Amino acid sequence: MSKPSEPDIERILFTEEQVQARIREVAAEISERYRGRDLKLIAVLKGSVFFLTALAREIEVPVKIDFLGISSFSNQRGAPGVVRIAKDLDESIEGEDVLLVEDIVDTGFTARYLLHTLAGRGPNSLGICTLLDRTSRRIVQVPVEFRCFEIPDHFVVGCGLDYKQLYRNLGFIAVINPGQ
Ligand code: IMP
Ligand code: MG
């Protein structure tokens, strides 16, 4: 595999083609699970937006979308995060079938907080769909219903995931070299 031009990229974990193919498979699973119902996809700004739009295009049941913004008060990666909602949903989710769309579930703190908060608003059903899952670093257990890829313990960028707000627009998932 050829090395891309970005100087900080160490290696590619999943190519754009692999990501697209896997998103299609997961979208098919979702379409099957929610057949006959409408589905609301909720993405967490900003990282999950890229995954949400790619996923939504492949889902075959009627889809609504909404967005949540959060502030996380953990300074270091790995430190237990305190999460709060900085931008709330535009619409109610009461009685709806809701999938929380995440870029990555790492320690699980963010997902657990969001699940807890959304569950309190009376959805008909609530699940998590994540692009990446790093179960080796999980601190709190969260039920992940759909996931595209399990990844090893390396910091990754691309497909919405950032390093200092950069790299979100890469179509592939790559490990970056934090030394540079
Ligand atoms: P959690 O609360 O530890 O599960 O953290 C999840 C959040 O941490 C994600 O939504 C990302 O914003 C961020 N994050 C965790 N690992 C990575 C990574 O490898 N690259 C980029 N962001 C990450
Ligand atoms: Mg995030």
Secondary structure elements and pairings:
Layout: E1 9-14, H1 16-33, E2 39-45, H2 48-58, E3 63-72, E4 83-87, E5 97-105, H3 109-119, E6 125-133, E7 146-150, E8 156-157, E9 173-176
Parallel strand pairs: 2-3, 2-5, 5-6, 6-7
Antiparallel strand pairs: 1-9, 3-4, 8-9
Helix pairs in contact: 1-2
The structure holds inosinic acid and magnesium ion (MG).
- Describe the biggest sheet? 6 strands, mixed
- Helix tally equals 3
Give the low-pLDDT segments.
Answer: none
Looking at the structure, what is the overall shape?
Answer: globular
Ligand kinds: inosinic acid, magnesium ion
Straight-line distance between termini: 21 Å
- Average of per-residue pLDDT values: 92
Total beta strand runs:
9
**Strand content bin:** 25-35%
Helix content: 10-25%
Q: If strands are numbered along the chain, what order do they take across the biggest sheet?
A: 4-3-2-5-6-7
Structural class: alpha/beta
Radius of gyration: 16 Å
Order of helices and strands: EHEHEEEHEEEE
